[in-house]
Specification:
Helix content: 55-70%
Radius of gyration: 28 Å
CATH architecture of the domain at 498-695: 3-Layer(aba) Sandwich
CATH topology of the domain at 498-695: Rossmann fold
CATH class of the domain at 498-695: Alpha Beta
Oligomer: single chain
Strand order of the largest sheet: 5-6-7-4-8-9-10-12
Length: about 725
Amino acid sequence: MSIRIHSTPIKRWPGRGICLATLLLLLISGSVQAARDSTNIRRADYYIDDDQERIDMLDGVLDHRVDVGDLAESVHASKIYFDLIDSIQRLIDRPVFDEGRKKLFRDHVYLQMRKVTYRSFTNIKRFDNQFHFILSEINGIQQGNLLQRLVGNIPQAFNTFGIFKNESCADSFLIEAAAYRPDVVFKLYDSYYKNSYAAHVLEETAKTAPVTAKRYFNKGDPIYEILKKSNDTAVKVIVQIMTRYTRRSNAFTLLDDIVHGSLTIEKADAIGRSPQKYLKAMLQIRSRPNPLGVHSIESELEVYSLKFIRVINDLHNEKDAVRFASIENFSAEELYTLMVYSEEEIFTSSFNGLFDRMMVKLGPVSGFEFLQKVGDNRFRTFIKMSAGFGKLRPFLQSMTPLYQQLLMIKFASGLSDYRDLSQAVEVADAFGSITDTLVLKILRSTVKIEYIKRMTLHDARGVAIYGLLSNLFVDRNIGSSDWFASVAQQYSLPSFDKVSNELLFDRDNIDRWLIYFYDDEDGDMSFTSFMKSFVDSNWQVIDSGIYVIIQSTHGREVQIYANKPKHEYDGQEKLENIFADNGFEPNVMVHRGHSYYAFKTIEKLKDNTQIFVLGSCGGYHNISGIIERAPDASIISSKQIGTMFVNNPMLKIMADRIREGQDVDWPSMWSELAVALKDNPKAYERFQDYIPPHKNLGAIFIKTYNRLMQEAN
């Protein structure tokens, strides 16, 4: 990026090829114009060089180095902003790419560089991931394996879509990505509407997520206008549902039955107005392989399952006859569905009650045959939950030893065949709850076999997944661990025991929190209890009517911003405007509300957030969504619904540690919190369901996998 004579940095001449001796000679002869002519004015990517100099000056000194406050991190930052970007430039310069492609690549590298600002340049992890992925994309275009790289990291691919939107696999990527984030595929339409594949991508996305598609069904909306002209049978049905019953109909979700003639549109609309009939119809569709509308079915099953589970949870003090009255007529398949789709909120006693009723209704049918009957839908989630709630052994006992072995082999096999990490994370999460020695031996053998198989197939992704899982068998008393120990050394799971105090403060030396309260039934009570936690001389409260700011009065400066629950919309909007207008990014974010609000908070995460407190577990998709937006965040979650009796003392202990200049050491903080809650048996019992960051196997697995894949690229 620049050259140096002794200790004085000199800006690189716009034409990289000219040597210093020639430059001096030209200057001596006064031929400045000749120098310009000899360099052919400027390189095609001069603006990237110029922007590197802008980034260089963000620390106030033009010296081919970026000071981020730590020597090792500063060296890392310099490699990213100069060496890595230079490598991308050299790759683009290769003759294999035509000039049109080169310009497109350069323009999008530049656009990503503009995101490196005074407030963000210290967040080197974000830009390390970002620019390494761009390098991987361009390599993939050159080597002909771009699609494999894109689907391996869909969130990053969305962020850099402009780089590959004209490549031959762009439509395949968008269609595959629609299974995970159809909303983003629709939102990106303005970026690809001129491409020949645009209409086909919209059709396939609508067929995967008709409930998402209907958001665009407004007169004059370009997406709606294109879909109205489609000749695709399923898309025609979607448009007909809109024409006859508007967006309010649940018939969109039953698309598979309508297209295949099992239901008329009229019958599907009627079924959609009866919660139990609707649930049964969705369950039947979901048991089929690759049904139409699968994304919408998944979302709706979660919504409707949680509706039933919340009723059962709320009646936890009632007798079982009252508590489970609403589901007594449910089939074994329906009870199973309620359990696996309500992971975010189901109480232990609710799960156990549903499980016992399901086993009775199974009758002579074995658990293995039952899972086949439901199409193995979320069977890994069920095994993980059963292990966590102490019900795995009774379930396995419903089948023969051979079927037990086959089920656990299937549980741990083929994890790299899925485009995302959800299934691998289910296995990793389940491991901590499995104590049965026989089951552990089966899993251990399966992981070893799969690792060797993936090595033979040169499947880097599969090797990484099973290499990471091998860590789970080290130091477990299930036979010799020599092989696992050797593999685990190559794929070690890092420690996330603490967050450094310095990482929690912006360049203005202020630690800012953003807490979202929601206007639900216990929002006011939760907010009032939270505020009482900070009634001491170390803190002061500024009440702004619709939100509060809690400020430290001693120690390091901490500012905690929180909307009032009755001001969910205007209060949160005001706080977001304050942060946006001042260029603030929250170092700590907290979700204080039911799980069905969680996605709203997660969508507002910033990549500089270091700690995120999520009231409920939310499974893989919530954890993955958090890591996508804040790669370095330590995540606190709960296996069940969060409670203010745990949340408030936890947040207060954490705030005081930060104010006192201490690192947030999770093991010691968890011990302190356990002591503080010991005298409150109910709170202490709920505390046992909270998962600290250093024990969140799912989050640790995803973060480590992402690091390994980045290094491989």
